[in-house]
Amino acid sequence: MESIFRVIDMFPVVVVHGGAGHIPKERSENSTSGVRSATRAGYTILQRGGSSMDAVVEAVTQLENNPSFNAGCGSVLNIKGEVEMDAIVMDGKTLGSGAVSAVRNIANPIQLARLVMDKTGHACLTAEGANQFARSMGVPEVPLESLITDYSRMRWKKNLAPDANPVECQMGKMGTVGAVAVDSEGNVACATSTGGMLNKMEGRVGDTPCIGCGGYADNQVGAVSTTGHGEAIMKVVLARLILFHMEQGQSVEAASDLALAYMKSRVGGLGGVVTVDPQGQWAARFSSLQMAWAAAQKDTLHYGLYTGEHFTQSIDDPL
Ligand SMILES: NC(=O)C[C@H](N)C(=O)O
Fold first, then answer.
1. Cα three-residue angle 15-65-178, rounded to 5 degrees
2. pTM listed for this prediction
3. Ligand 1 atom nearest 70 alpha carbon
4. Ligand 1 atom at minimal distance to the Cα of residue 214
5. How far apart are alpha carbons 247 and 224 in whole angstroms?
6. EC (predicted)?
7. Contact 176 CB / ligand 1 (< 6 Å)
8. What percent of the chain is modeled with pLDDT above 70?
9. 260 contacts 245 by C-beta, under 8 angstroms
10. Going by fewer Cβ within 10 Å, which terminus of the chain is more open, N or C?
11. Would you please indicate which residues are annotated as catalytic (active-site) residues?
């Protein structure tokens, strides 16, 4: 039952990540400024009384449009040098979700995922079927080239070398994007979007569009968006595992740490998460070397990149 105290005590919050990994020094400034400005955009929606779903989709759309991240423009390339993207949204009020996988030529897969949730009776559309659905919804298709940056092409080429180890190399630069939010009504939502893993096989679908792996949202527990090695995340169903720990009484932070530690010890996987509960408690945690993250609540912007880093500024200060 909804308690009036819960609504009064609750402060809307949005928490954003720009991917777990190892961000080269020359790219770290762009990553942190990207997540901060996406967080601010999501928070503006919450401040105006908008929904957590609108806030997470706006934040992730901004990061998809930012070439510094592995999502939308800037996505990593598959083995054939092409972009195939995965995305998911989930609404904690209804447990409704929408996802797309292996989708091509779409600038904002997160918006297509939302259309899958809002306009179809399905939870996930894949590959050409997802593109056909996009056409039927009037979502414009963009040239493949417009999603490819010089940086992603350079890394793709580097990883074609016979002695390359794409999994090792990309532990470095994962850059998937995601967000979770709680709105003024206590509704939680999540959104996650990715180009997947560097030099992946054509048709490879990662954790991101899989419910419970790339994200999960339930008003009765909280919401999570994940990033990291997709095959490891799928083995432990990372997002739902965190919510399970919260159901057992753990805080957002402890639940996130427990699940990430389990993924590391059990399957050797590294990753990161952003987590909220319906009361507006939030956490940004990772087992990788870095994860660009930012959060906005009570007119304060919080952000960090390395473990233990936590900076704050007023939401209105220049980024
Ligand atoms: N960068 C990432 O987080 C990658 C994503 N989880 C995937 O495996 O597709």
1. 25
2. 0.95
3. 1
4. 6
5. 13
6. 3.4.19.5, 3.5.1.1
7. yes
8. 94
9. no
10. N
11. 176
